Amino acid sequence: MWSEIGKINMTDKPTYLGLLNAVALAESHAHEYLSAWAEVTTDPDVRAVLTTIAAREGEHGMSFAKRINELGFELREDEDPNHGKKMDMARSDRSDLEKLEALGLLQFRTEDSPDIFDGMFRDHSIDIRTGELLGRYIAEERDTLRRLTACRDALACRPATSSPPTEPSPALEDKIDALTRAVDELRQIVCAQAMPTGGP
Ligand SMILES: [Fe+2]
């Protein structure tokens, strides 16, 4: 029947179930280590970016698990051998820039070249609801990559050890005073030499 075209037969296992499962697990793990990092960073700008992205990752994890459930299946847990190391890195006292690099957060960034997300819609059997979820997920992931790239670029421009601005030291003030006096003396000499000394 033509009217049946496009409807999902719930007894069939969707070909994209593995994709949904992989995304659900990866996003939930990312939510954990990004949240842990946000709790320890001392940089309010970094914390703001991490809080936004961690919320997205957590929501993606839950939404994909929910969609798997709606399709009549269960999320299959799969141990990520690197998750413990990522949590340790996130909680460590390494710099924010080091964490960003070590956690591989920009590994899927390709500018305008094809990226890992481009292949997700090659499966033409994806149902409408799952397609909506995947489309929003992809757009948010690409926005996340743009935000993290801006964050990385800003951190890379900062001195290696950031310290709050300080008052000039007494020794520096003495040098500035001496330099000011020297400039004054020099100006007086130049002015004196430029004074008319009377015509011949
Ligand atoms: Fe993600």
Describe, in plain words, how this protein is organized in 3D.
The model is unreliable at 196-200 (pLDDT under 50). This protein has helices at residues 17-40, 44-70, 83-91, 96-102, 128-156, 170-194. Helix 1 packs antiparallel against helix 2 (44-70), helix 1 packs parallel to helix 3 (83-91) and helix 2 (44-70) runs antiparallel to helix 5. It has 200 residues and is mainly α. The longest helix has 29 residues, at 128-156. It has six helices and no strands. The protein has a single domain, classed as Ferritin, CATH 1.20.1260. Fe (ii) ion binds at residues 27, 30, 57, 141.
H/E topology pattern: HHHHHH
- Global mean pLDDT: 86
Could you say how many structural domains there are in total?
A: 1
Number of strands: 0
CATH topology: Ferritin
Any chance you could write out the topology, listing elements then pairs?
Layout: H1 17-40, H2 44-70, H3 83-91, H4 96-102, H5 128-156, H6 170-194
Bound molecules: fe (ii) ion (FE2).
